[in-house]
Amino acid sequence: MHIKFDEEMQKKILVYSSSLIIAIVIGIFVYNFKSITKNIGVIANIALPFLIGILLAIILRIPTAFLEKKAFSSVSAAFSTKFKKKRLISALCVFAFFILLIVLMFRLIIPTIFDSLQEFLLDNEEYISNFNFYLSKIEKTFDISLDPIRKLVDGGIIASIPKHVLTIANYSIAFVRFFINMIIALVSAFYIILDKENLKLSFKRLNYSLFNRKIANRFSHYIDLGREIFDKFIVGSIIDSTIIGILCFVGVSLLRLPYSPMIAFIIGVTNIIPVFGPFLGAIPVAFLLVLIKPIYAFVFVIFIFILQQVDGNIIKPKVLGDQLGLSGFWILFSVTIGGGLAGVPGMFLGVPLFALVYRILGEYTEARLKDKHINIDEEF
Fold this sequence. Notes:
About 85% of the residues lie in helices and about 0% in strands.
């Protein structure tokens, strides 16, 4: 007996079967969460240089494209088409400038940060003594006991900093591995930028060979949408964090707070993480400043509050815009879930990834409502 289904029934079967498969996959993932995340961590560690390479390609593609179109536009079309010289020269210039920036950072900025860190470690005992003095004053004023906090500081957090710093400093193998990974990442990014048309063509050939034209077109649209979201978010976030780091250094220096290079570096790096970033950077810095002088911490907190207001209301809207299309709740949700699954990288990449899923679901929902001739705004 041969059963025929109309187009509407076929769509329902496809939706229900897809939902069932997704539910089964989620169930398997939850049930085997520990082993799956462990394997994902191993795979991510192996693929790390190539993931960094993709990230660098996203960042450096923009200045490369600008040079290719503007600066080297005088190169003849035949010359550039046959040998792709414009792309090659543009990429070489951008990568040379990027490597120069890294060298300058290690030559000028990093030593300054380490000097601040070394100075802090040398004065470590003095800061513990200051902190105990302030605790004693609070105990006498309010007639309370703060011994648990004193023990935590004396034998825990602060006392362990030199040991951990020295341990980290002795990991020369990790540094060599990082150096090799960065070389692989730079080479990968260079080839991705240089051969991006062939990579796109290979993907399109695979896409249209696996799926029918309608599904392949939709899949290509989602890939373009994801590239747009990730491009704007990653590049915008890096520019925003760089501006905040520079402004923080200038502000902390003008306020004559100690360890301005180290503080600016911490605030700039952590600012790249949405929602929680400012707190992740400001709280430990404020705690360290309390150990030196409480007034320093008070001034710093006020300064960071003002800086974050400037960032949230002026800098970030100009640099990032509203390309994510997410409310504050969904950004908080994506940062929390991403952080739980993949730590700090997950907190950063979880936002654009969730924004992509959100946009895809939104387009699918609109298409389904249109097929059913339902207008939510008018009928409900």
